[in-house]
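URGENT: need a sanity check before tomorrow's submission.

F., can you look over the NADH dehydrogenase record below? I want to be sure the sequence and structure line up before it goes out.
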Amino acid sequence: MRKLLLLGAGYGNMRILLRLLNKELPSDIEITLVDRTLFHSLKTEFYALAAGTVSDSEVRVAIPVHEQLKVVEGEIQEIKLDEKEVLLADGQALAYDELVIGLGSEDNYHNVPGAAEHTLSIQTIGKSRRTYQTLLGLGDGATVGIVGAGLSGIELASELRESRPDLKIKLFDRSPRILRDFPERLSNFVKDWFVQNEVEVVANSNITKVGEHILYNHEDTIDVDAVVWTAGIKPGKVVDDLVIQKDRSGRIVLNQYHQVPSYRNVYVVGDIAALTHAPSAQLAEVQGEQIVQVLRSTWKGEPLMLEMPELKLKGFMGSLGKKQGFAYLADRTVTGRIARLMKSGLLWMYKWHNG
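Structure tokens as predicted:
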């Protein structure tokens, strides 16, 4: 049997499974998926879990069942590329012929003192649960700081405002305006929502230190009861330990077939891949589609296409609570109730397609 090993049950590897597990899968292919949980987590919805507006069941999707698929629950300790095996924390060693690394990312604290020790996270389902428990325990009038005004920070701030109108929420943005790389109409819509709903956006911020209940922004100090960190991501230790070419952010450099150039049987999908686009669930899925094409050609002994198609993204969608949203699709801006309905519909379709 030829062994395909998938590390991580994220968006990229779920798309790979969705495309492979059908009647076209060769009978001599054995697929093993390894993850710390026995389900796929909807990471794009962790902000709602942390805010307490959805339950665990709404951000979990079952992993497909197939006679040629084995699912292993475990923590990955080391990837041994030369030996073609992966070691798990419990001592298991999993051999492979082809490997897809889709381990996702962790918070990037940018060497800010105290950030790792004194902030909450929404990077995993477990950390999002703990963030919810902490925020749930805050009293009336408590102050929550959210460091990072990207999509995750914006959605968390707005969702938390709807679930806890009694809290004071401060969103710290390094930029002069929200979503500065996108049209000003989009930026102004989000800004106006925050003004109307009394979420304070601290523009041009630079968090230099985090204390137990205090944030240091430039020369100012801000008292806080809890801080959630949404200010960037980076690969974890398992990827850091790999002796292969990486970019300045520590992400793995790939060839056009999403392979590690020095190990053509190793593919990388998702947040840890060095691509021209910013990491996203959509990008991981597009990658997954192309990796399936390459795998099928490889298994059939066919030559790979000379040029892989460009990775094309459709845009992005964001929510502002349960009733408002914003989207940037095909260079067009959509705001308000329609954008929120579009995002809800996309989430429903994703769950439906994944069973």
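My own read: The chain is about 30% helix and 30% strand. The mean pLDDT is 96. If you see anything odd, call me.
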